[in-house]
């Protein structure tokens, strides 16, 4: 199926958006309706390192994890939960492993649903295994195994299908360490979008065939790499003004999943999801203050502002004073959701949304741009040239620069370094051609020569 | 929409990077520590600026003036890179500057080697790899660039490296240490195997590990493990080994922060 590009916004204004409510709710799993007026905790976990030694050990580990989460949800009286299993590589390289895990988890969830009526769904996030030791092999032999992993998991019990796909990463990794904004634009906006269209057309077809939901992708491999390298305020590895540019560019890339048939909820670590929600009206999972178990960020409250599901990103399964990690973090997520749902039921949702947003709005250029009103503006810049994957990514970057500059003229404090990085990036963006073919040709020549692991055939060139 | 006053904002957050920013610009700071020699200065400056063509031009001028190509590696290229790494360690410049400077330096080293028949001696060799099963290599790429920037010869085994290949590379290259990076909890388990097989062969060199899901507690579980929280710790650990701290417990004492 060809991607149907977005050229208009789902919401008439930024203020229409809030948490727990989306224009196009998604029914999934055991009686869940996502984005239909309530928020849902989405718990994510990783098996202990030694559990990967055999299929039997892995399945047993996920059974323990699933039982722990479901029992804690019931013990504390929460009405709904989503479990997200991000595949370890063995589970996607051997689709039967992933399928057995999905089946084991879903069996336990059905027991809890039958006994207590708790609404729940299971997301499986397939590993992007399309690479060998030396190169990304996006269209190579592993592509069929990759798709088989989706299908087998869907048939075995997974309700929501996701992936953190890697298209463009080989060029991005090179560009981000060299302040190369044109390279980042090419990697995420162009190469990433091309790959996304291919895989999400196929994943959406599998979801249709299996009666499951193609849920969405995240630019974890690139925009989150930039955020992670950017780190905290005192880290010296990447200007945060460049990290937010990577994020803005990632929105039109992650949008492609929905243009190719995905329905949401978008995956948790896509901090760009607020922009995607503004464009598509589809429900989104987000993570922030409750994902400190996995990584730090500078927008822990703000990013909750318009979420439909609320996640902890990932936590290794082991014991804590309060139970196992998945019990502790699922309970924390669910209490956050209880607060948001109370705000929704008492018509205070916009007050809480704005408190969450404002508490981090000026913490960092990244949070400033992702504040829902500014994120909406980035969305508008994207749909303005929605039919052109290059121009819309460039528009997102330029609008991001404009927003940060406007913020810096007000209460958003930037360091000289951040200001200079922003100015350099803006100058580069201004000098880029308006013609997509020229940009693509120039970049193909440049990165084929400079990035030895870049194989153009991965993108059909 | 809700908003803060300037006064109320200060009660909620502080951008410490802005509040504590150093007064001096990176260019001014570099200018203060460049070598003064008129042939070396332009090379060091070109390294700082990451300008590969200017590095070659400066090297050619120095060679034309009679400087020995191999001596220029230590006396010009490494000196220029020393300016870069010093300012990075002091928080004056950021990682992309180091990466671009390292590219220019490596280019310059190749140029010097092409113009000489003498071999260049480095500070020592480090074997770097990403754990078996793991293809996330940006952290390893930063580590190798920083090690090279600090004068070490790097044997880069790449990503998803089988344990036995790591062991073979250590036997073949006799490095002063091995580094291992991993993003995922399930793949970092391979570090234990590397550790055990090194010990089986009677090799007791530090095995510096770090990366996304890797933590100090895990690395401390195997005898040769030294945890590096930042990529920038790798050259510091190598420097400590060269300076005589080869005992694993002593290295942990120095580099384990938690």
> How many distinct domains of chain A?
1
Supply the number of helical segments of chain A. Answer: 16
Rg of chain A is: 21 Å
Strands side by side in the biggest sheet of chain B: 2-1-3-4-5
Fold-level CATH name of chain A: TIM Barrel
State which percent range the strand residues of chain A make up: 5-15%
Strand order of the largest sheet of chain A: 7-6-5-4-3-9-8
Rough outline of chain B: flat
Order of helices and strands of chain A: EEEHEHHEHEHHEHHHEEEEHHHHHHH
Keywords (chain B): Cobalt, Metal-binding
Family (chain B): Belongs to the methylamine corrinoid protein family.
Protein name (chain B): Methanol--corrinoid protein MtaC
Domain B12-binding (chain B): 123-248
Write the layout of secondary structure elements.
The complex is a heterodimer of chains A (461) and B (258).
Chain A: E1 21-28, E2 32-36, E3 40-45, H1 55-76, E4 80-86, H2 89-93, H3 95-116, E5 119-126, H4 142-156, E6 160-163, H5 169-176, H6 181-210, E7 213-217, H7 220-230, H8 240-259, H9 273-280, E8 285-287, E9 309-311, E10 319-320, E11 323-324, H10 325-345, H11 349-361, H12 365-370, H13 372-384, H14 389-408, H15 416-431, H16 436-450
Parallel strand pairs in A: 3-4, 3-9, 4-5, 5-6, 6-7, 8-9
Antiparallel strand pairs in A: 1-2, 10-11
Helix pairs in contact in A: 1-3, 1-10, 3-4, 4-6, 5-6, 5-7, 6-8, 6-14, 6-16, 7-8, 8-9, 8-14, 9-13, 10-11, 13-14, 14-15
Chain B: H1 6-10, H2 16-19, H3 26-33, H4 40-49, H5 52-64, H6 69-89, H7 95-114, E1 125-130, H8 138-149, E2 153-156, H9 163-173, E3 177-181, H10 190-200, E4 207-210, H11 216-219, E5 225-227, H12 233-242, H13 248-255
Parallel strand pairs in B: 1-2, 1-3, 3-4, 4-5
Domain B12-binding (chain B): 123-248
Domain B12-binding N-terminal (chain B): 30-124
Family (chain B): Belongs to the methylamine corrinoid protein family.
